[in-house]
Amino acid sequence: MIPSLPQRxxxxxxxxxxxxxxxxxxxxxxxxxxxIETVAVLDLDxxxxxxxxxxxxxxxxxxxxxxxxxxxxxxxYDIAEGLSIGQxxxxxxxxxxxxxxxxxxxxxxxxxxLRDLAEVLSLHESAWSWVARRPELADAHYFTAVALAQLGxxxxxxxxxxxxxxxxxxxxxxxxxxxPNNVRTMFGGALRQLEEAERxxxxxxRIATIGERLSARYxxxxxxVADGTVHVGLYQDGRLVTEVTDSASEIPLYPGxxxxxxxxxxxxxxxxxxxPAPTLDPTHVTSDGEDLGEFHDIPTVDPPPSEPTGxxxxxxxxxGGHLTDQGSSYRRNDRRRPRTGRDGHxxxxxxxxxxxxxxxxxxxxxxxxxxxxxxxxxYFLLQDDGTEPPxxxxxxxxxxxxxxxxxxxx
Length: 410
Description:
Mean pLDDT: 74
Largest sheet: 6 strands, mixed
Order of helices and strands: HEEHEHHHHHHHHHEEEHEEEEH
Radius of gyration: 30 Å
Number of domains: 2
Structural class: alpha/beta
Shape: elongated
Helix content: 40-55%
């Protein structure tokens, strides 16, 4: 017999409950979308390698994490935009001031140019440009060095060139234009100074802040060297979890090379899901007791008096340390520690795209399993619920004829 309306409603409700249970079971699986963690792989530093190589290697490592499958890597565009939220006007102002400073230098007003450039550096620090807008900040340091050299303040000029080369390896050959001869000579000294110094490391407190701003518990930083050395560290809530040093067969290796997948696997320890986060001490400071919660203010850049009467002020360097108003660096971390949004971002000829979770192959494969598995389970559950299937009876039959001419195409 044909089930009554209440029976049909009860059967529909039972099917709905089974489907919900199947979906809940799938979502509880370790590989479910909810288990994917966001990781921010910051631009790798380069020592003796060009800027292009650092970008290619950075993207390769991001792809390695994507292939590892338990992490969703942010693109370089996502990182830059996330760190500079609310700073678009400041960045626009900085670009205008940089153009003004260059005009002043051309007209011989180097002191006036330095005042503009000091503000440019301050604006870029507020936007955390040392993390993901490195070419722009490198330009600001370069023109600051040129202006200082015009005033005979060569020591300070060299220190700014060191920052320029750290932010943009190979700047003197790949990006600088119309370089004065004395500045070209200073670049040689700055390069030697950078190569002889300890490899830079971003303090844990700053990494924690970067992660908070990007809503990413995991952050990766590191560097590459011309001899093939690659050193990277994985941080969780600002704490160093793992660091790995390896040697690449050539620089650069391109995204998709197995080297990057292996590197990502070693960083996460081969685990399918990230380890629990340790408790972060909100009062974290560096080993020497220096609190690095905020950048120091940019000082004035007029020539200093011959006999200073008080302590010098400082500006932030690109590794989280500081430069005094004389340009010398007074913080170096002595530990050797070691960019895909539907909106693509083209950088140095590379286009990085980051797909939403619902557009990944594994998401829909899993959903297909849920639907198919839920259907099979529903079949057996309905067979076991004691409900007899309706008996087939002879019914009156009808033939429905539709005139095709009365149907219009959509």
